[in-house]
TrEMBL record:
The chain crosses the membrane at residues 20-43, 49-71, 78-97, 103-124, 136-169. This is Yip1 domain-containing protein. Pfam families: Yip1. It is a multi-pass membrane protein. It is found in: Membrane. Keywords: Membrane, Transmembrane, Transmembrane helix. GO terms for cellular component: membrane. Residues 2-155 form the Yip1 domain. InterPro entries: Yip1_dom.
């Protein structure tokens, strides 16, 4: 798929249920958070409780990333369906297979930007091939979905972090 995406997507004939791409994405996210999980635990190794909290925080980030990718795929499917696409499972497969390229190798500086862009290209290619729509329509669906999902997350996450910090750090408490 990485070297010859045209061949991979055109010859891919397997059909799975919706659980297959969701599991594939979950494993990809689990693999992608391993370096961050290791760093979080090692940096907090002097306090076991802090290490557990750091690990739980990283796992929470991973779960949030998984939900974001699934929402992005479903939104891309909704947009692609305007162009004639059908079958949410195929859309999620088009998002799942390139996810390791797009998200899994984020810890390599500079290269991660190139890999992220190439992973997005592979997702667009998969949408186009699996749904028999043009690359332009697939690109519109993928890019609009990406901007909407991660734009909303960029706005919502600071609010969630502020609320959590207020409870965890007991900000504003009268002493």
């Amino acid at each position: 798929m990485i070297r010859k995406p045209d061949v991979f997507f055109s010859e891919y004939g397997e059909r799975h249920g919706i659980g297959y791409p969701l599991q594939f994405l979950l494993v990809t996210v689990a693999v992608s958070i391993v370096p961050l999980l290791g760093v979080a635990v090692v940096l907090n190794s002097t306090s076991p409780l802090s290490a557990v909290f750091a690990a739980a925080f990283v796992v929470g980030i991973g779960f949030g990333l998984w939900v974001g990718i699934v929402l992005e795929g479903l939104l891309a499917h909704a947009i692609a369906s305007l162009f004639g696409a059908s079958g949410a499972t195929q859309t999620l497969e088009a998002y799942a297979f390139p996810s390791l390229v797009r998200y899994g190798l984020w810890w390599f500086p500079i290269v991660n930007i190139v890999l992220g862009c190439y992973g997005l290209y592979l997702q667009i290619k998969g949408l186009s091939a699996f749904h028999d729509i043009s690359m332009g329509n697939a690109a519109i669906a993928a890019v609009v979905a990406m901007v909407l999902v991660f734009g909303v997350l960029a706005l919502v996450m600071p609010l969630v972090a502020a609320v959590l910090a207020a409870f965890v750090l007991d900000m504003g408490a009268q002493t």
